[in-house]
């Protein structure tokens, strides 16, 4: 009786193993790139420069912001890009269509006085303003005249939605989670 001998070559096994390694490497680097992009564009770390957000933040405080999915709401602390290209941190007071008035240092939102326990100083009076569509009224927590260059100033005015980069998630110095209200 003649026996038939089958020889298997390791070439097909080696080929499959090499393909698996290549696909595994491609997936690994793809995940790394996605993670990098998510961290690069999804979140940012900013250092606060100045005193316009005192007492909530001091000069040099670190803030982490969510730049992906958010919709500004009353009281949120946000980062926006000003006309000179600088990132600025302020608090959202008014949303599109809201009416803002400052009288005797008190901020009125839609004819209701805001209870703001996070501010310092007293704001100058401002006549009634109605915010246009896609625009927000942002001001600093340090309300003393001249301490915060914000929406109260005619040079700044309301801030367009596309200029708002993100909302604060976390402050590291001092530690604050959320909007800091």
Automatic annotation (TrEMBL):
InterPro entries: LexA/Signal_pep-like_sf, Pept_S26A_signal_pept_1, Pept_S26A_signal_pept_1_Lys-AS, Pept_S26A_signal_pept_1_Ser-AS, Peptidase_S26. It is a single-pass type II membrane protein. Coiled coil: none annotated. It comes from the Bacteria. The chain crosses the membrane at residues 22-43. It is an enzyme of class 3 (hydrolase). Its EC number is 3.4.21.89. It is found in: Cell membrane; Membrane. One of its GO terms (molecular function) is signal peptidase activity. SUPFAM superfamilies: LexA/Signal peptidase. Residues 28-168 form the Peptidase S26 domain. Belongs to the peptidase S26 family. This is Signal peptidase I. It comes from Chryseomicrobium palamuruense.
